[in-house]
Each structure stands twice: as C-alpha cells, then as structure tokens.
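pinned: reference chain
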Amino acid sequence: MDLGLRGKKALICAASKGLGRGCAMALAREGVDLVITARSRETLEETAGEIRRETGVTVIAVTGDIVTAEGREAALAAMPEPDILINNAGGPPLGDFREWDRDQWIEALDANMLTPILLIKAVVDGMISRRFGRIVNITSGAVKAPIPSLGLSNGARSGLTGFVAGLARQTVQHNVTINGLLPGPFDTDRLKATVSANAAKAGMTAEEFLKARAAENPARRFGQPDEFGHACAFLCSAHSGFITGQNLLVDGGAYPGTF
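pinned: its structure tokens
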C-alpha cells in the first residue's frame, strides 16, 4: 500500500534507537524527510546515516534533550513546519510512590505529558492551515492497564492521553489527527534495563527472566521496533484521516480486556 506520504516532513523525538528509530525508518521508507532528535550525538548520527543510505531521504540529526526548552527550540528550528510529529521520550524510573517527591513527579510530567503538549502547541496550527497533520504520541500499554511499579509513567502518560482526547476532536475537521500508540513489551534497551533490575530481585539471570517474560505474552515473544514503526507509519498515512483520539495497543495481545 502506498501510504501517500512521499515528500512530507516529520519531526521524530528520541529517534536514535528503539521505538523512535523504528518509526523514523518506517516513515523514511515511505519517502518522508526527517528531523530526528536524541541526547546521544554518536548514536543519533549513526542512525541518521543508516536511514539516509537505505532510503535516500533527507535526514537532519538534532542532538539535544527534547524535554528541555533548548532541546525543543533546536528541533523546531530545524523543522518548524512538520507534517508529522512523533512525540517520544524515555519513561521515568520504576519504584514505589512513597519514595517519590514532588521534583520526581514534575520531572515525569515534564517528559511524558508537558513536552508533548508543548510540541503539539508549536506545530498544530500550521498543520491546520495546510490541511494535513498527523501527530502520534508514543505512550505505553500502562495507559490501558496500569503497572503498579510504573506509577510515574501511569500518571503522566494518562494525563497526556486525557488532554489529547479533547483536542483530537477539534483538529480532525482540518485533516489533522492525533493518536496514541501504546507499546507493550518490545525488544529495546528500556525493556532490558527493566528486566535486569527485576531479574536480580527474582534470583534469576537476565536471560532467564527475559525468556520467562516473553513466554507470558500471548504472542510468546517480544515485539520488534520495526513492527511498531509500521503501525506508526499507517497512523501517519493519507489513509488514516478518519482515525483520531484513539489509543492503539501494540502489545502482542497482552492487554486482557475486551475494550
């Protein structure tokens, strides 16, 4: 299927690896020119080079922390009028809510709620005026089924989801859609870091714990970032203009609910 995106422009946050990279690669394969951001210059430049070589699209790498005002300003300076915005940022740490102080809550809200909202604010009116826009917020399966040890993420990402639910119904008449893409367990550095901590508590090796965790998923495996990227690309496509304010789980069937 031709997604109708050739020649469009995308700003993709935290795209040097993992799910952000998967989205960047999938969009580039559809002929979308990119600005990609991340904090690690070396990894980001490597990813940008790989995408250029494989797809031939224009890729601008902007090193910086998208959670900071300076990071957002640099990204928007490189791509002030994107047709596509992929919001993404690393999740906050695990723990018990009794251990978190106000500063840790504000940090989580800044990264996983306020930064996406500020980026949407910066680009949505331009999308409306051009009558095309696709905004995808990479959140978490925890929005649908909260994970006790991820309270900071549960709260911040659910706040973003609630905000978007209202805005997405206002922008869709202008062919600007806003949706959430909710990953379950994917084979990423974030998963491996989480597994390492939990494996030690369970008295298992990381390899044993990963194998057991994968077996718990109905798909009997972890997702791959490329799979996530393809789902993202479709939500960004010319064919998805009637899908807005939705939260698509990409989790191998892990969420047990009917709705």
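why pinned: The first helix runs from residue 18 to 29. The chain has eight helices and seven strands.
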